[in-house]
Amino acid sequence: MLAMIMMPLVSSSQEECQPINALPYYNDFENEPHYSIGGTSRYDAFPVCWIRINDGTSSIYYPYISNEIEYVINGSKSMSFQHYGYANNEYAVLPPVETNILGRIANLHISFYARSSVLSAPFPMFIVGVMGSPDDTSTFVPVDTVYLTLNATLYSVSFASYTDTGRYIAFRSPRIPSQFGAFLDDVYLTDQWCEPPANPTVTASHNEVSLSWEGNGGSSFTIVLNDNIVAGVTDTFYTFSGLTENTVYEYSVAAECGGETSPWLRGSIRTECHPLAYDDLPYTEDFEAYSYGYHVWDISPCWHKGDSRPTVNYPYPANCVVAGDTVGLSMGSSSAVYEWAALQRVDNSVDVSNLELDFLIIRSIQTSTISRLVVGVVSDILAFEQSGLHTFVPVDTIDISNEAPNSIHPVAVRFENYTDSGRYIAFLAPQLALREGRVRIPVAARDGDGAERLLAVIR
């Protein structure tokens, strides 16, 4: 039989806690204590009146409330379950439902956001169920199982199939062979279910954010973008204008159904930097302002980048000393199908065919694999970020497979033969191409009158 360890609540005793006697019940953990070094311990970082159960023999403080950015789904805090071989099961148990007031558990719906830190089979999961006693995991009756992905997803579970008399709704996170983290947020319990909007499409320019969604029967919608609230929208789309460039905006959409409000469909998006017009040229980006190392995700908030492996953060700023500079861009992992980086958007007023791109490329490690970098233009950056390689039009290929390791090569790419409508100049490192290459990108652009203008410079 598994040993069961229940972590007592420190900030409030169970006797002081009230059952859930009014609906909807909502907890986004924003007002709960969170773990911090030198502050609240992991043991104490847990919702007041919830119960933690962990059947491990060490690290029994999981799950706990975290504000660490890699664990957070929405807002600034989420609940973190972590499986590193210590426990077979971790539970988070809600306060008991006062069924004498609210009626049967079978009348309820619960919704929540969740995601995983890994994307591999067997997939991490949350098993949602009901317990007859919060002190005895053998009373846990599963109701539904949701399988988690890397993307934060809004899930909903109906308790209509539950026929027992338990009052403690619980999330169970079971151990699987691989190590993983599972994260929970925005728990919403109701007896008047209104289906939330679904499948949002969100796009951003430098001064607008446009949202569209599936209504799922909602008669009207409320949309929130940071502090901007718009209610009574009957369409399934809306655009916010007059926004600030290069700024992260959090959005929420809820449906109204016969006087009831659905759970919020939530997310965030960053507005782009303003498009590069002729007045912005010369434009220089040498990466020297950014930290370097594999753990660093951003190369520049105005650039876009990606990797065929969803959990890997290539390309990344790397220590690359050239002519007094210290930071370059590392691309071309041997295990990636492709990696890419794109400059910020070129304004419609600029003729891309009049531009020239100058950069330095360094082959740092000798390999038997062909090393090359493809330069081109992307027409749809959103599709490109979702593996839409068909939106990338190659302009030139730089092959350095026969060059000596650590040799520096200046490159000039002209776009005079480019005739498409793309606005994002991009670098693509495909598999069997630039292996362990370090790319430095001084980028000169010339307009039609021959005056030299820098589009981006790394030197």
Task: Please tell me about this protein's structure.
- The protein is globular.
- A six-stranded antiparallel β-sheet has the order 1-3-6-11-8-9, with no helix packed on it. Strands 2, 4, 5, 7, 10 and 12 form a six-stranded antiparallel β-sheet that branches. Strands 15, 16, 18, 19 and 20 form a five-stranded antiparallel β-sheet that branches.
- The chain is 2% helix and 42% strand.
- It has 459 residues and is mainly β.
- The protein has helices spanning 99-102, 381-385; strands at residues 5-7, 25-27, 51-54, 64-66, 78-83, 89-93, 109-116, 125-131, 140-147, 153-158, 168-174, 180-190, 198-204, 209-214, 220-225, 228-233, 237-240, 248-257, 260-261, 265-270, 304-307, 316-322, 325-331, 338-342, 356-363, 372-378, 392-399, 407-414, 424-430, 437-440, 443-446, 452-456.
Topology:
Elements: E1 5-7, E2 25-27, E3 51-54, E4 64-66, E5 78-83, E6 89-93, H1 99-102, E7 109-116, E8 125-131, E9 140-147, E10 153-158, E11 168-174, E12 180-190, E13 198-204, E14 209-214, E15 220-225, E16 228-233, E17 237-240, E18 248-257, E19 260-261, E20 265-270, E21 304-307, E22 316-322, E23 325-331, E24 338-342, E25 356-363, E26 372-378, H2 381-385, E27 392-399, E28 407-414, E29 424-430, E30 437-440, E31 443-446, E32 452-456
Antiparallel strand pairs: 1-3, 2-12, 3-6, 4-5, 5-12, 6-11, 7-10, 7-12, 8-9, 8-11, 13-14, 14-17, 15-16, 15-18, 18-19, 18-20, 21-24, 22-23, 23-30, 24-29, 25-28, 25-30, 26-27, 26-29, 31-32
